[in-house]
Amino acid sequence: MSDAIEITTLHEMTPGELGDFFALLADKQVLATKDGKPYYRVSFCDAGREVSFPIWSDSTHAAACRDEWQVGDFYKLRAELRDSNYGMQLEIHRIRPVEESDKQDGFDPLMCAPRSKFDPEAMYDEMMQIAEEAIEDEALRELVTGIYESHREELLVMPAAQYNHHSYLSGYLEHVLNVTRNTRMLVEQYHQLYSDADPSIDVGVAVAGAMLHDIGKLRELVTGPAGATYTASGTLIGHILQGRDILREAAVGTEVDADTLLRLEHIIVAHQRLPEWGSPKPPMTPEALIVHHADDLDAKMQMMVAAIAEDPGDGEFTSKRNALRQPIYRGKKEPGEAEEE
Amino acid sequence: MSDAIEITTLHEMTPGELGDFFALLADKQVLATKDGKPYYRVSFCDAGREVSFPIWSDSTHAAACRDEWQVGDFYKLRAELRDSNYGMQLEIHRIRPVEESDKQDGFDPLMCAPRSKFDPEAMYDEMMQIAEEAIEDEALRELVTGIYESHREELLVMPAAQYNHHSYLSGYLEHVLNVTRNTRMLVEQYHQLYSDADPSIDVGVAVAGAMLHDIGKLRELVTGPAGATYTASGTLIGHILQGRDILREAAVGTEVDADTLLRLEHIIVAHQRLPEWGSPKPPMTPEALIVHHADDLDAKMQMMVAAIAEDPGDGEFTSKRNALRQPIYRGKKEPGEAEEE
Amino acid sequence: MSDAIEITTLHEMTPGELGDFFALLADKQVLATKDGKPYYRVSFCDAGREVSFPIWSDSTHAAACRDEWQVGDFYKLRAELRDSNYGMQLEIHRIRPVEESDKQDGFDPLMCAPRSKFDPEAMYDEMMQIAEEAIEDEALRELVTGIYESHREELLVMPAAQYNHHSYLSGYLEHVLNVTRNTRMLVEQYHQLYSDADPSIDVGVAVAGAMLHDIGKLRELVTGPAGATYTASGTLIGHILQGRDILREAAVGTEVDADTLLRLEHIIVAHQRLPEWGSPKPPMTPEALIVHHADDLDAKMQMMVAAIAEDPGDGEFTSKRNALRQPIYRGKKEPGEAEEE
Amino acid sequence: MSDAIEITTLHEMTPGELGDFFALLADKQVLATKDGKPYYRVSFCDAGREVSFPIWSDSTHAAACRDEWQVGDFYKLRAELRDSNYGMQLEIHRIRPVEESDKQDGFDPLMCAPRSKFDPEAMYDEMMQIAEEAIEDEALRELVTGIYESHREELLVMPAAQYNHHSYLSGYLEHVLNVTRNTRMLVEQYHQLYSDADPSIDVGVAVAGAMLHDIGKLRELVTGPAGATYTASGTLIGHILQGRDILREAAVGTEVDADTLLRLEHIIVAHQRLPEWGSPKPPMTPEALIVHHADDLDAKMQMMVAAIAEDPGDGEFTSKRNALRQPIYRGKKEPGEAEEE
Amino acid sequence: MSDAIEITTLHEMTPGELGDFFALLADKQVLATKDGKPYYRVSFCDAGREVSFPIWSDSTHAAACRDEWQVGDFYKLRAELRDSNYGMQLEIHRIRPVEESDKQDGFDPLMCAPRSKFDPEAMYDEMMQIAEEAIEDEALRELVTGIYESHREELLVMPAAQYNHHSYLSGYLEHVLNVTRNTRMLVEQYHQLYSDADPSIDVGVAVAGAMLHDIGKLRELVTGPAGATYTASGTLIGHILQGRDILREAAVGTEVDADTLLRLEHIIVAHQRLPEWGSPKPPMTPEALIVHHADDLDAKMQMMVAAIAEDPGDGEFTSKRNALRQPIYRGKKEPGEAEEE
Amino acid sequence: MSDAIEITTLHEMTPGELGDFFALLADKQVLATKDGKPYYRVSFCDAGREVSFPIWSDSTHAAACRDEWQVGDFYKLRAELRDSNYGMQLEIHRIRPVEESDKQDGFDPLMCAPRSKFDPEAMYDEMMQIAEEAIEDEALRELVTGIYESHREELLVMPAAQYNHHSYLSGYLEHVLNVTRNTRMLVEQYHQLYSDADPSIDVGVAVAGAMLHDIGKLRELVTGPAGATYTASGTLIGHILQGRDILREAAVGTEVDADTLLRLEHIIVAHQRLPEWGSPKPPMTPEALIVHHADDLDAKMQMMVAAIAEDPGDGEFTSKRNALRQPIYRGKKEPGEAEEE
Q1: What is chain F's alpha carbon radius of gyration, rounded to the nearest angstrom?
Q2: Over 50: is that where the pLDDT of C32 sits?
Q3: Do chains A and D touch (3 or more CB pairs under 8 A)?
Q4: Do F327 and D232 touch (CB under 8 A)?
Q5: Which residues of C touch B235 (CB under 8 A)?
Q6: What is d(CA D131, CA D179) in angstroms, rounded to the nearest whole number?
């Protein structure tokens, strides 16, 4: 495709448009015509559109389709989008597997994976903004933001988990930003409420803890086209211990004082609260207690909202087959409501 | 004491002042002088001052002290406060047990019980203010505020528990206000975050649930001079079920729709989340999930802050003898800090 | 079917008889004759008989069978029962879906659901008889029997549960009657045994508690042709709390004294004994203790007996796939025993 | 005491009576008169009366009292009971420690231990009567009654436990008789109810199981003056396994068929239902299920009744310091009731 | 097969060899040739070889294959082993089902079941050798070895369990030998380490306990061609209690002293340590503690090693579908390693 | 004490000997003579002897005793040991608090703390010897022994715990050496037994893991005269995580390969096996499984042996008041045995 034309995306094309774009071969099946002639039905997709159409046995692509095209592989296509009686179809002019160099043209192997509905860059910026405002201790703030900056690229795409909650691209940022917002609101509230506490409840430490509580996922998980998978050390050691490693490694040589660092480590270690929930130690500081609740609520809330959104039924309750393993109450549809939707 | 003078309070008196005031006889002990003559040492107190002094055997009050004065009873005294070598003392002019009619002069049998550091009236007003702002559904708002108004006097003084957390006068209001604030912040956050949820996350229901989650304590506990104690129905039935009773009884004849009422009942029923923590049903709505976390965090936070404040030691950790049954981290005192306090 | 003849039932008909009756279309399948001609095989049933037979393509009902007859619907038929080489068959003269007015002629949408082997009316009467004999306190007895009379129709058919134990029509009555019998025997025994107990063990309260312990199922479950299903409030609140509601609502205005009512409420609340088994409070009275054991034994006994009866194997033990999730011992069949049965 | 007079008992004596009797020295304390002369205050008791009185330093028994009398030992006394200003007192004529031969005169080392309020012989006879009526299989009946007859003497006095429930003399018989009665009532009920069960529910096996479920206490406990204590094998092996031993040893050479014996062993093994409650296997037969409930109810009922009777307070609830470790509801005293008692 | 030739085994035959041997018909499937002619594909196996080959429709065995040969039955074959293009095949000369008398010729119905890779006779001998060396008390040694000698034949083949660990022929011996070795090493270590313990830690009792800890499996399990299955008493009573029975029965009349026997019984009873793991009593002697750990480690180790060996995947971790229900870490294959294997 | 004489120890002195030695003032009480003159009774001790004697009011040390001597402080004494009617006494010639420089003369602030009966140097050497023999991988061996060498001084004295097991000086070495011996025996056994495992069971990794499993106690505990106490990080983070830190810090720059290091970290993390026992991850390698059992057995064995040795009673069982919270079986004393001891 040396005579390259502007790269577009499948889901942005309009009927009649000819474009170069990247797509995943999502499906390929052998079918037969009424008079018994075999042909293939293929589906190409990107994150926003899936197009299915036949490759007839007399097509110029018939042999390649049969022998070479692999479901699960990405291709660069030059094709025209057509609106037929059978829905949208592609008339393929050229097609080849993607190459390493296509990344320069914007090819992203994660292009088809589900992703957060929030913009990762905006979430990242808000996180930095919160750190700026809420962490007064300069050494502490630089430690936290430094860790983020060192792993910016991964953090922008990483899911929060393999399954369970926020298990889609940028899910990590979405979850941790919510936890950080919750933490900030709550800790500022309690800092003021218990203004005579000694030591006083520390807004900066709590916010820093919220930002870093799951940072070990950087080492526990590997993000791939099919979602996150566990690393060997992730399974054998786990993100709680690995997150503390990242913090301790980054803290070497900084001016963060020892007690602050210890409190921050403790937030990471204690954020799941009970041994059977994964934490070797329970929260023993107000800051660790707040981060635990801010985290637990956000994780369960996302599971609950997703359970309602994804439940296939239309009853008052979802089934138990969701991340919370319990029914969620949706309530009755108002009369007429079903039709409007 | 017909020739009544202005009623003052013990803790407001200044040395040399003569005043009429109410006080609790907190202690009475027989001691002996160096030459073997017995005398009594008595302690009178109100919420802000305790004064201990001798009643000598030749005092005009000696016989009454020995035969009539009961530790734990309240007295009306006319006495002069004196600053002696042995600390503050009272020279009693007149003394008699309090009478029913003293309540008109401001006698309050709860006068010596520990109480919230926050003003109950202000907390009550803030609660009403939040209801006004955050519960849009008028019928629902009136249901909730109506319940509060019907029990205003009790709610102003009721503790939140017999032991555990907020177990002092007005502790109920302090705790529930915190839970309501937390809930409001969190539910507004998630309402906006999941703006496309269907049904949408309901700010008004969550705030109403927060305000009413512990309302059953009205029937579970009785507030007395020695703190809260359990009623028979409180022990046999419990505040979760009794709170739902109060709600259902108040809802009869209102225009709150059935589904809203059911969601509100569910918040009360589910607010302790697990059967072994006291809830027959787990949270099955986003609103119930939020109230659970808002409540659990506030209860544990108060226990933690109180554990630090009340721990008799001065180590880095409190002992385990507190409501959370675990050590809480206080950290090291800075050099020189101890002296200043 | 204006020229109506006497209504009979399918399972009471004898070969050669022509009758009008109601039946459920339980199955409908397309088959083909040896020479390739398609036909339908249909099955009609009531609670006591299922008849399967072909509808040939040249039948007068062929078109209706193909296009209109729905598996799961009830029909009124006029048909002759015939004993053929292929078993009992029906020669249909007339057929139409049931109509609302058929209920007057005895049509019952629950006619095919499994039901208790005991007569509901007889069970109901025995329950009333026990109340009459064992509950001496007149106000209490009238409260309990009044609740039964107000819900007589539902109680006569309601299952005791959706799954687990006694999950068939009138299963509620069967279970609760057993619990009431057990309770009466046991409480009379212990009343006499501990004749010097103060307060004495109360036969009437225990029997009333047995009769009402599961009364909340009236609001927790809805009985339909396919068995019981949960209501929204049943899932969000549960039958223990709802049963107490029914009791409290019925008690308004009666002369049942407050302590008796409280003890009765407590029996309902505590009858499952442990939080993880569903009860917010453990039994704190002898009467509540007895009802718990009477109930728990009867539920498990029915599960055990049903597990043996329904286990498809013929080994010494049933499999674990039953409501108790454990093997039940059946023992060895004696030689020759199998043949006799 | 060669010139023996009729032996009486301390609690049957009347003021002014001189008698020979056995008594336990329950207490001995050194006190001093107003003018500083030391004397002893001693207490002698039997099961029905305790008498405390001084032994002055000039008494003929003064030296023996000081040097020889041991608290916890039994003595034979010839003494006169006197009604003094200080209550009942004894004027001792003769006193010596009990001897082995005193047992012929009715001395019983268990004479002071608390005991069942029911007559052991009558309970034993009722147990035999039930066996006669309810166990039809002759070999089985003889096996069970044979075990009882072989251990008749121990069974008549043995407590049911060291602590917990029925922990007094003849407590074993009282408890096991109750369990057997409960079992018989329940199993006859279910035998009839599930008359079509295959195999049918076996009344004789259940009743035999009830009678033997705790028989291992014969080897687990040793009965002494101070109540029951554990044997080494009782602690290391336990009464469930040891009861099965007794049964198996007795069954050798009888005609009880193997399956019946196995079902009976299983009842013993499974009667505590859950591993953490002491049973290695859960009930897997209807008979074992019934015996479990009959046993569990009786044990808890006795704890509850005893908790109410022994609670030192007079509130609506007992404290938690009882065998059930929970408050038991006693209810309000009626006005005036307290005075009458 | 009157003209019997030397009996061989399938897995010892070489291509071209004609032999008489026993084999299991492991599989039989109907297939069709390209031109539509049906034929059978059969698989015969012994413990070391499985041979699959066609039985054409014109074969002399075709009718018998279709009508008589049963998958799961054993046959005696005279056949020639041939190495074809399609792998090893059998040309069957004669075939008949095995008969009772074939056992004399070495037929063993367990011939195809998986078995320990260790020689049972050698393991048995080592066990006796350890008893000889490590159990000094002669009466005790003879008790233990006597039990083994009485059940020698069963012990040589018995698996250790139906599922879980060592669930193959001779698995009992393999497991118990490992436990005995572990126990001996550990108890000799601790005997020496705590040489001043009183009583001293007893090597002989611990080793005897190790040898007998699972002896009840003799009564709990029945070994058959398809592996071990539970007896009725095994399910209702269990191997822990039954093992103690075997010991006690064997101990009657021996000179083993009572305390030693009690300690040995306790080891059996306590070897699974916690009630929920199957032991009614926890280890209360050092010897019981050692046997528990020796046993628990060996069982889990075999599960872990088997999980790695049998996991179908090739990732760094096994799946969770193994006896331990958790992933096991296998680690990365070195580059090139896969090819070598 | 310039005219210094040879330093001896209190417990090595013989009656009549005059010596210089260090001792702890363990007790000091005011008593009075028969004629009412007050005097002090003081106790001085070292690890092997405690001497109690009076300081009369006319003694030259009377004023210092009263005003300066502090219980819990160490002193250097020059005194003569005398054997009086009241036991051993000291006639003090000179006495002063110990000074920093006394350490050069052998003063050790831990001199009175209980300590292992094994020689720390010998245990340390055996540990190094095992490492030498059993860890073949040179980089791994040097990593492990390097950690030991860097902390040699602390490891020689450190207890294994504050309470529970091996909670005395050098208890760490004693425990870890036992675990390492157990591990070595067991892993060599299983390495050979499963010689075909892939990967093979790694003797060196298991032994290294045993040596390091508790190394985090270096940071969790601080050893003082009154035993071990927890550091702040020990309570907030815990020795499992801190031990992994020590390992990872020491591994930086070594040639230990990544997979070996990960397996070693996993042994530390998993050595307590279950979350509720303290391990965030369960053993997922054979080596981790072995170290867990070797550790758990040794800890419990020491508790059991200590419970028997320290139990104050003389019954067949110890009480439950020991580290295992259960009775331990000691057995009957042989007749005559009691007298000899």
Answers
A1: 25
A2: yes
A3: no
A4: no
A5: 281, 284
A6: 13
Residues 6+ apart with CB under 8 A from E100: none
Query: What secondary structure does DSSP assign to D165-214, as a single string?
Result: SS-SBTHHHHHHHHHHHHHHHHHHHHHHHTTT-SSPP-HHHHHHHHHHTT
Average pLDDT across chain C, whole number? 91
pLDDT digits (tens, 9 = 90+) for F87-133: 899 999 999 999 999 999 889 888 888 889 999 999 999 999 999 99
CA distances from A332 to A315, B282, C231 (A): 7, 20, 11
Q: How far is CA F84 from CA F53, F55, F79, F88, in A?
A: 10, 15, 15, 6
The tens digit of pLDDT for each residue in B257-269 reads: 999 999 999 999 9
Q: Which residues of chain D have pLDDT under 50?
A: 1, 335-341
Alpha-carbon distance B330 to nearest alpha carbon in chain F (angstroms): 10
Both tokens of residue A334?
A: 């108002």
First to last CA, chain B: 43
**pLDDT beyond 70 at E288:** yes
Residue whose pair of structure tokens reads 């729709």 in the numeric block: B257
Q: Spell out which residues of chain B touch residue C232, defining contact as CB-CB under 8 Å.
A: 262
pTM, to two decimals? 0.88
Residue B98 identity:
V
Q: Is residue B183 scored above 90 in pLDDT?
A: yes
Q: What is the mean pLDDT of residues E311-331?
A: 91
Q: How far is CA E257 from CA A247, B158, E139, E264, F70, in A?
A: 63, 69, 9, 11, 56
Reported ipTM: the value is 0.86
Query: Cα distance from F236 to chain A (closest Cα, Å)?
Result: 6
pLDDT per position as a tens digit, E10-67: 999 999 999 999 999 989 988 877 676 778 999 999 878 889 999 998 899 999 999 9
How many CB pairs lie under 8 A apart between chains D and E? 68
Q: Using CB atoms, list chains with 3+ pairs below 8 Å to chain B.
A: A, C, D, F
Assigned token pair, C187: 């409480």
Instruction: Check CB contact under 8 Å for F259 and E330.
Output: no
Mutate to test the interface with B, among A119, A186, A298 (most CBs of B within 10 A): A186
Residue D280: how many CA atoms within 13 Å on its side-chain side?
A: 29
Torsion of CA F66, F68, F70, F75, to 10 degrees: -120
E182–F199 CB contact, under 8 Å: no
Token code pair at residue F288: 């981790």
Structure tokens at E334: 């070195």
Q: Identify the structural domains of chain E with CATH numbers, from first to last.
A: 10-112 (2.40.50.140), 120-303 (1.10.3210)
Query: Closest by alpha carbon to C260, among C127, C128, C137?
Result: C137
Q: How far apart are CA D33 and CA F52, in angstroms?
A: 37
How close C167 comes to chain D (CA, Å)? 16
**Torsion sign, CA atoms E251, E254, E260, E262:** positive
d(CA D95, CA D107) in angstroms, rounded, equals: 15
CA pair distance D146, D127, nearest whole angstrom = 12
Beta strand A87-97 with A74-84 is antiparallel
* Residues of B with Cβ-Cβ distance to F236 under 8 angstroms: 329
**B183-192, E27-36, E180-189: segment of lowest average pLDDT:** E27-36
User: Alpha helices of F2-119 — where are they, by DSSP H?
Assistant: 62-67
Min Cα distance D280 → chain E (Å) is 6
- Phi-psi map region of D335: left, alpha, beta (phi>0 left; psi -120 to 50 alpha): beta
Q: Is the pLDDT confidence value at A2 over 70?
A: no
Give the mean pLDDT of A141-165: 95
C-alpha–C-alpha distance, residues C257 and C260, integer Å: 6
CB contact under 8 A, F285 and E329: yes
